[in-house]
Amino acid sequence: MSATASRPAPSGTAGAGRFARPFLGAFLLAAAVDLAGLLAGLDTVHLVAKPLLMPLLAAYAAVRGGPRLLIAALLFGWGGDVFLLADNDLAFLLGMGSFAVGHVCYLTLFGRGRAPAALASGIAYVLVLAVFLVLIWSDLPAELRVPVAGYSLLLTAMAWRAGVLGRYAAAGGALFLLSDALIATGIAEWPRLPAPDFWVMLTYIAAQLLLALGVLRAGRAGRP
After folding, report:
1. Which UniProt keywords apply (predicted)?
2. pLDDT greater than 70 at residue 203
3. 85, part of any domain
């Protein structure tokens, strides 16, 4: 056995992991309950479970020593989750604004001392965004077109930039983009998959979890 392999883990790291696991378990349980409620058509279950998700994930990240910008991004995501529980245009705009602030937090975090993101993936993201907006533009309500376009540009930048932290964060950024695209198709009244809210939440939950794990893994790798 090598000296590195035989070296015990720092007690602080082990302690943080022990205290963090219950929060991660509670997050996964809330996610499973929420998704099951959506599949079963139980709106009350969704109303109760959805607001629990991001605070639990933020608590997990905080106990793991995650950066403040990650905690802030998750909590602004929680704000967006709560606003979007109301079914009206004002709540939708407020929710989109809260998510947008979260994306700014992610972008700031991804830009700290990191290498430039891959140009090829950036071009691919821009092309996907441009094609999607062209196709959906006329079907969006007129008052939502500009806000949706601005938000989509910010989200696409976040998804692209997430790639600097590795595969977990890159996948999280892409899934976040997919989740919000599914919401946009619903607003445009395009044909949708069965149980559309289930697919929106599944991709969103996976996106936030992968982004958080990507940030935490990158932070751990950067420690001596």
Report:
1. Membrane, Transmembrane, Transmembrane helix
2. yes
3. yes
Long-range contacts made by residues 82-86, C-beta under 8 angstroms, separation at least 24?
A: 82/51, 85/47, 85/50, 85/51
Structural domain includes residue 140: yes
* Cα 224 to Cα 221: distance, rounded to the nearest angstrom: 8
* Alpha-carbon gap, residue 86 to 34, rounded angstroms: 17
Burial 20-33 (b: 16+ CB within 10 A, else e): beebbebbbebbeb
Structure-block tokens of residue 213 = 């794990």
Residue 11, pLDDT > 60, answer no
Residue 144 lies in a domain: yes
The reported pLDDT for the residue numbered 1 is: 40
User: What is the pTM for the complete model shown?
Assistant: 0.88
Does residue 153 contact residue 205 with C-beta atoms inside 8 Å? no
Domain residues for the domain of 56 are 21-222
What does the block give as tokens for 17?
């992991």
Query: Which residue carries 């071009």 as its tokens?
Result: 123
Cβ contacts of residue 95 below 8 Å, gap of 6+?
79, 80, 81, 82, 83, 84
Classify residue 62 as exposed, middle or buried by CB count within 10 Å of its CB (0-12, 13-18, 19+).
middle
For the chain, the domain total comes to 1
